[in-house]
Amino acid sequence: MRESHRLRIAIQKSGRLAEKTIALLVKCGLDFELRRDRLLHECKEFPVDLMLVRDDDIPAYVADGVCDLGIVGDNVIRERQVQKTNAIETVMPLGFGTCRLALAVPVAMECRSAADLAGKRIATSYPNCLRQYLKQVGVDAKIVELSGAVEIAPSLQIADAICDLVSSGATLRENGLRPVEVLFESQAVLIRSARALPPAMALDYARLLQRMNGVLQAAQAKYIMMNAPREALERIQEIIPGMEQPSVIPLGTDGSHIAIHAVARENVFWETIEKLKAVGASAILVLPIEKVIA
Ligand code: PRP
Ligand code: ZN
After folding, report:
1. Counting atoms of ligand 1 from 1, which one is nearest the CA of 168?
2. Cβ distance 66 to 249 under 8 Å?
3. Residues with CB under 5 A from ligand 2 (ion)
4. In the chain, which residue ranges form alpha helices assigned H by DSSP?
5. 55 CA to middle of ligand 2, Å?
6. How many C-beta neighbours within 10 Å does residue 219 have?
7. 170 close to ligand 1 (CB < 6 Angstrom)
8. 260: part of which helix (H) or strand (E)?
9. Does the beta carbon of 164 sit less than 6 angstroms from any atom of ligand 1?
10. pLDDT tens digits, one per residue of 113-160
11. Does the CB atom of residue 123 touch ligand 1 within 6 A?
């Protein structure tokens, strides 16, 4: 058991999730000096230590109680299947690091679905997920387990197809591959050890969670301001259903025009703005929100 009464969070040291994980923690008010050559990073002003490790090791650190929390791709959790031991719990998705685990084949290969891969060799670093999927769809293929650089397996002729994470799709394109099936979608998640925390740490955890929720909700919310004819208010509320109890301020003296100020619990796209203009709104301002605390 650890002596310290500081919450310890395992995060990816470098890779797809590293930068956005750090950005999220900074937005939560954690203040630390990042040094990639160091394992533990003490936060000032908040009893949290960050442990920078390989993403694949994060579930095990949390399961073993070396860390209390972890930020990792759901794909890693699924592959490790540690959740089955009930040692860790997924607290919430974090909205970044979105990707999918997909089957991909060389562009020239004739293959329309997983069924066409029967009897073929599929390279992957996700053997558990792939095995489970192939069983589900009733396809008998040979799994070639690789720890990295899976995308070059077909050109090296050690496999006919691959099963790997696809985010932008650039890696597949660069290697002359195309996706044929998606096994599942994934994103970064917050995980915690299933063990109960000592009371003081539980309090710090609750504070951190509230901050994280505040940051995540803010990411999807916008502050919107506009002027409009009074009779357009109802239609404007239909255009932005996520707009909560807008402040309506009369403009001028005849009451025909109003200013609307509101938090919209949704992203406001150009299409939405065009619709607002079409019902008579003008001087439309859409502002990002930094924190939302209910
Ligand atoms: C994944 C995957 C590809 C790349 C795909 O690796 O193995 O290499 O991302 O991204 P793209 O579609 O945007 O090109 P990841 O960054 O998760 O590294 P890891 O497997 O070493 O953890
Ligand atoms: Zn990894």
Report:
1. 13
2. no
3. 55-56
4. 18-27, 58-63, 74-80, 127-137, 170-174, 199-220, 233-239, 270-278
5. 5
6. 17
7. yes
8. strand 257-264
9. yes
10. 999 999 999 999 999 999 999 999 999 999 999 999 999 999 999 999
11. no
CB atoms within 10 A of CB 100: 18
Common-topology check for domains 7-96+188-218 and 99-185: yes
Asked if 59 and 174 touch (Cβ cutoff 8 Å), the reply is: no
Global confidence as pTM: 0.86
User: 99-185 is classed in which CATH architecture?
Assistant: 3-Layer(aba) Sandwich (3.40)
Are β-strands 222-229 and 282-288 bridged in parallel, bridged antiparallel, or unpaired?
antiparallel
Q: What is the distance between the alpha carbons of residues 164 and 172, in angstroms, rounded to a whole number?
A: 9
How far apart are the CA of 250 and the centre of ligand 2, in A?
56
pLDDT score of 30 more than 70: yes
Q: Which of 16, 15, 14, 6 is nearest to 69 (CA)?
A: 6
Residue 247: alpha-carbon gap to chain centroid: 33
- The answer as to CATH 3.40.190.10 being correct for domain 7-96+188-218 is yes
Cα distance between residue 26 and residue 268, in whole Å: 25
